[in-house]
Backbone:
């Protein structure tokens, strides 16, 4: 299930970034929908990173840290 979510996320991010890059090269404005999805993906990425860092910090400070690669 995680693999499917990661693949879907990667495809969405790749599509959004390539669309924005193409629009910038052609000196066109981004559509409102593209802007909305771009901000949504950026917000989701930031929130997920913040949650992961918070969880790992808590684990490290409480002495319950385990290896992520195990």
Residues:
């Amino acid at each position: 299930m995680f693999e499917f979510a990661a693949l879907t996320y990667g495809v969405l991010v790749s599509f959004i970034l390539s669309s924005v890059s193409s629009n910038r090269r052609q000196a066109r404005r981004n559509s409102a929908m593209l802007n909305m999805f771009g901000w949504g993906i950026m917000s989701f990425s930031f929130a997920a990173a913040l949650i992961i860092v918070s969880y790992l910090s808590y684990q490290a400070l409480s002495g319950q840290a385990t290896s992520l690669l195990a």
